[in-house]
Amino acid sequence: MSRVLIIGAGGVGRVVAHKCAALREVFTDICLASRTLSKAQQIASEVKGKIEIAQLDADRVNDTVALIRSFNAELVIHVALPYQDLAIMDACLEAGVDYLDTANYEPPDQARFEYRWQWDYQQRFQSAGLMALLGSGFDPGVTNVFCAYAQKHLFDEIHEVDILDCNAGDHGHPFATNFNPEINIREVTAPGRYWEQGQWKQTEPLSVSREFDFPEVGLRRAYLMYHEELESLSLHLKGLKRIRFWMTFGEAYLNHLKVLENVGMTGIEPVTFQGQEIIPLQFLKVLLPDPASLGPRTQGQTCIGCLIHGVKEGKPRRIFLYNVCDHRACYQEVKSQAVSYTTGVPATIGAKQILTGQWRQPGVFNMEQCDPDPFMNDLNHFGLPWQIKEFGLDEELLQH
To answer: Do 48 and 185 reside in the same domain of the chain?
Structure first.
C-alpha cells in the first residue's frame, strides 16, 4: 500500500488527483488538501474512486505535520505555491516522509528563482533517510529528464541546450495566465539569464527573442528567460558550453503585460490604499481569470522540448526531443487545460518512481540526477508521449 498526500487543489492538483486515482496499484490511498476546502471537494467528486480531503494552510508547519501523521502518508506531493516549499519540506522532515514538488522555492517578497534554499536541505534529508525530489513538472522536470536521457543514450557530450516552451493555445480572454498569475508574471517580468562557458549572463526582461518552427504548431516567436532548470542542468551535463530557456508569448499578452507593468500593477512591494497595505500583483491576481477556469475555453496545443547540440561517436549531432499536448484532449480526460496537464502528469510519474523504489534514495535531488529510462517510459504510457526530430547541422533553428 502507498498512501500519498497531495497539497494544492488548483489546476495542477486536479490533474495529479485524477492521475493518481487512476493508478490505484501504486497510489492506494489519496488525500487532497487545500486552503480552500470547496476546491478539494469539487476535485474529489470528479475522480475515479474515493479520495479523502482536508483543509490545510501549508504555511503552518505543525498543521501539515499533524495531517501527514493522521493520514499516515508515505509521500507528500506539493503542487501549491512555491513560497511554501520550505515549510512543507520542514513538515516532511518532522513527520518522516518523502517530498516532491514541481517548482523551486522563491521568497514571497522578491522575484528570485534559486535552488540553494532547497539544496541546503541535502544533509537533513540524507541523515533522515528521506528523499526530496525537486521540480517534477514539465519545465522544470521533463526537460531535465529529456537532457538526462539524451546524455545517456543520444550523445557522448552535450555542448548546447535550448529549452523551448510553446503554448499555442487560445482561451478567448483578452488577458489571462495559464498558471498562477502571481508566479507567472513574476517569472516573465524578471531579467533573462543564461549560462555560457561557466558564467551566468543577464539580459533585460524579454529583450532577446527568436523564431522557431515548432512541430505540429508552426512558427512562433520565443523570448529568452531565466528558468530554474538551467541552474541544476548547468552542473550536471558533461561537456556543456551553453544552456538557455525560451518561451513563446502572443502580442496581446505582451501588450497587456507592458501596460500593467507601466502603471505598477505587476509590483511586489506593498503600497497603501485607503489606509491598508496591498501588494499590486496580488490584487491583480484577484482580478484576472482563475487559471483553473480556462480548461473548457482553451483550444490548441503546447509543444515543449529540448533542442540539443553535441557529439556522438565523434560526429556532431543536433536533435529536438519534445512533446506535443492538446488542450481539448486534456480537458476531456481530467478537466484541465494542457499547461496544468503537462505539470501534473510528471508530478504523478515522479511520485510513482519514488513509491515503487525506482528512484528512491536519501537526499535532495533534481530530476536529471535520476535514471531517466523508467520516467521516459512512463511518459509514453500516461499521456505525454515524446518524439525526437533530427536536424542537419547546417539548419538555422532559432531564427532572428
So the answer is: no
Mind listing the pLDDT tens digit for each residue in 105-129? 988 766 677 899 999 999 999 999 9
CATH number at residue 96: 3.40.50.720
Tell me whether strands 157-167 and 242-248 are parallel, antiparallel or unpaired: parallel
Domain of residue 116: give its range. 3-134
Is 250 part of a structural domain of the chain? yes
Whole-number Cα distances in Å, 394 to 101, 220, 310, 316, 318:
39, 21, 14, 11, 10
Domain CATH number, residue 159: 3.30.360.10
Question: Residue 391: which residues within 8 A CB-CB, separation 6 or more?
Answer: 318, 319, 320, 397
Quote the pLDDT of residue 178. 61
Helix (H) or strand (E) holding 221: strand 218-225
**What's the burial of 298, exposed, middle or buried (CB within 10 Å: 0-12/13-18/19+)?**
buried
Q: Looking at residues 30-49, what average pLDDT do you find?
A: 97
pTM for the model: 0.92
